Amino acid sequence: MFDVIIIGAGPYGISLASYAVQQGLSYKLIGHPMDFWKTQMPQNMFIRTPYELVQFPHPRNKFSIQQFAKETGTPLSDPLPRPVFVDYALWYAQRTGVAFTAELVIHVNKNAEHFVVETDQGSSFEAQNVVVAAGVRHFKYIPGLFRNLSSSLASHTLGYTDFNLFKGKRVAVIGSGQSAWEAAALLHQAGASAELIYRRERPVYGGGKYQEIVLRSIGNIFFSLPHFIKKKLLHIGTATVPIARFLRQYVEGKVNQHSGVTIEGVSEANGKAQLRLSNGRKDYFDHVIVASGYNINLDKLPFIGNNLKQSISREEGHDVFPKLHASFESSVPGLYFAGPLSAHSHGPTFRFILGLKKTAETITFAIIKTKKSKDVS
Ligand SMILES: Cc1cc2nc3c(=O)[nH]c(=O)nc-3n(C[C@H](O)[C@H](O)[C@H](O)COP(=O)(O)OP(=O)(O)OC[C@H]3O[C@@H](n4cnc5c(N)ncnc54)[C@H](O)[C@@H]3O)c2cc1C
H-type helices in 292-342, by residue range? Predict the structure, then answer.
């Protein structure tokens, strides 16, 4: 019987496991280490967070990215290459004594006493608490219009580690966010002829250290803010996230852009994808990459048992999100959510790695508090 089982070994899961080690809690961290960042993202992309704010948390502020750089001789730069972030995460895990159980959770349920977690390797573990830190991979969203195209003609940005298979091909990239710009830049570098198509009148560039610090601070106060301010702030984490400025040079003047247009029709013709745009244009592409992001939705998590799912209270008017307490605990005692699934209750900060410290500290101390009160009674 473990104090806590953490599902997902990405930045949130690793931070939580590190805090469990430091606080003497028994734990299982289940998931392949940094799998999403290693196998589902373009290998030569940059991370948008400025490197000074890329910090895995520690109660005494040890194991910073600067310490990692010094000890391993890794140069730090803005923007930070993805592999440096992955190496830093794994170094932090190793230095703080985090152990991984590299399996996939296939089922979680709760009986009267505790949680039972089963994995794809046939293991079964029991715990007093479970933290779901499974990221966004279960939530990729493709608008209905594109679902009629075969997968050889249309795909989501998720899962591309490079774009070399599109060399010499015409590819439409739909969207005007970070992932659309990233895909367009990397397609261009891979020798594809990419065309960006989006609704906005012009791309919005932004981000940078100051904005990220503000976003991190919001995470500390969001939970206790009045409803109308929360509503405005939640917008920051979704519709209005700008494209990181460093991407401008890889796209502007290199990739054709069709702004201010919507897609009115999508069909398959002679092995190509045909797009009909609101400006009257009709064009054919070898492939369409849809950069439409992720729709976070608790019901789409494949591993939480139906009875358990139904007993989790939801956010009013946004029932795809669990309603969480200040401690990130759901209405099911002992069941916590970290990362994107906590972003409605706790704010947009938690869609990003900026929320690691607050999450790891808060959940760990909540678990310790409950454990102590149970020990006393
Ligand atoms: C292309 C891209 C670029 C991004 N860039 C940034 C950035 O620069 N800065 C930033 O702050 N955020 C960025 N993000 C957002 C990013 O996803 C989060 O900040 C960060 O990964 C959140 O950490 P996490 O631990 O919640 O999720 P993840 O990193 O996704 O980790 C969760 C892990 O859980 C695993 N998992 C899922 N289901 C199971 C299961 N059943 N059993 C076991 N394991 C499971 C997943 O495979 C994954 O490895 C980016 C996202 C994308 C898609």
Answer: 306-310
pTM value > 0.90: yes
Q: Using one digit for the tens of pLDDT, what is the confidence trace for 116-153?
A: 999 999 999 999 999 999 999 999 999 999 988 999 99
Q: Are 56 and 16 in contact (CB under 8 A)?
A: no
CA-CA distances (angstroms) from residue 316 to 261, 312, 313, 326, 363? 34, 12, 9, 16, 23
**pLDDT tens digit string along 302-322?**
999 999 999 999 998 889 999
Residue nearest to atom 24 of ligand 1 (CA): 135
**Is the distance from the beta carbon of residue 5 to the nearest atom of ligand 1 less than 6 Å?**
no
H helix runs in the chain, sequence order: 11-22, 35-39, 65-72, 82-95, 144-147, 178-189, 209-221, 227-236, 248-251, 306-310, 343-346, 356-376
Domains (range + CATH), the chain = 2-138+296-376 (3.50.50.60), 141-207+242-290 (3.50.50.60)
Counting from 1 in the atom list of ligand 1, the atom nearest the Cα of 30 is 43
AA identity, residue 245 = R
